Sequence to fold (467 residues):
Amino acid sequence: MITRGRNGGLFLTALFIIAAGFGYLLAVQFEPTVNKAYVVSAQNVELVEIMKGLEKENDSAAQRIVDLRGQLGELESKGAATSDEVRVLTQQLGELRAKAGLAEATGPGVIVTLSDSSRTPTLSDDPNYFVIHDGYLRSVVNLMRRYGATAIAINDQRVLGNTPIVCAGPIILVNSSRMSPPYVITALGNPEMLADSISQDVFFRVLEVYRDRFEITCSLETKTSVTVPASLNNAAFKYAAGAK
Amino acid sequence: MKRTRQSRWQSTILIFFVISFFVGLLLPGQAHVVREMKQTYQNQDPQDLIRVIKDLQQHKQDLLVEETDMSQKVMQYLRSSDDTAAQVNQLQHEATALKQRTGAVPLAGPGIRITIREQSSGSSPSILADEDLLLLLNDLWASGAEVISLNGIRLTDSSSVYRAGLNVRVGEKVTSMPLVIDAIGDTENMSKGLQIPGGVLDLLNLRRIGAIVQKVNLLRISN
Fold:
């Protein structure tokens, strides 16, 4: 009886120490994270407001550009009816605008969809394998060009040769627009040829391994009709000029 | 007495079990909340948000240029509705800009030249990977490049760039190392953009791939 009482007391003391230690460790583990999240949140409220305000302004500017382009197109059509020279030039201009990515494009093509894993990485996992990186998007775009894509878009943004795909921490920007997963990469071109070539490429196969192992989304589908939006960039160069 | 102590002991064990169970139950929830908090934009690193804001400000300027240009074209067209010569002039002017953009004419301007040399022989060769090259080109576009050529081959909207053995394929053309990248554009910004600590040049240097950046007053890139 005495033995059990002593053992019980020792057990409870040990239990108290373990529980207190566990509680202490928990507090140490979570307090800085929670506090940091809270403090950063307070710091960032203003930055997020500025960011959203700029996005709103840019969206409005983008809509005005679309409207003005539509207005100009109508005026050019009217002008084309007045003279053969204007008609021929207007037609040439339409082709050049399409080639420069300044017009919406529709046709058969493929869609590659990438998205972060829905599975939470465990402590032994490298979390880098669970998210889609900007480099993946650059590589997929490069693959699409390699296998004959004539026009490419990521989500609602047209991707031209000079379109940077950058990241700011976990945020991916295309044409300065914040992209949210899923990243839908659309390419115009021969669907069968694009799909066959992309699916057999080493890079895409690596992504499929990540899909199977880390549960990221990686899919490739052929489409009879896809549409990519026009670029809203200005065609004129600021530094480069025609050389003789 | 014995039964009472045994019962107390059992109660202690039961309470301990219940507490442990709830702690175990709450822990993943707590971790989830913390993870969710970190994922919202308001909990991003302020440096990342500042980078996004700077990018958006630049984009605002770019959109303003296009909007102003479009407004002027609409106004000019309205003014010259009966003037065929003026319309032709306006159309030709835009066609010239578009031909420059699409790579139909040679271009010249200030820029930077980057010469990249790899060590493809020896016991531990250092090879420029596709991803390195794509990152370098991406950083150039992001920091103000307007036109880029690789060993004289101009990049267009449809150009893919990748390694083919020890060679580099640029679209349908093949070139070899060393790689001379000419970029016409904002010289200062491009130079700074490439040389930021931890940037692409640091990455190449760490992998023993030599990259030399030179500012050039007048680069010429053919079509």
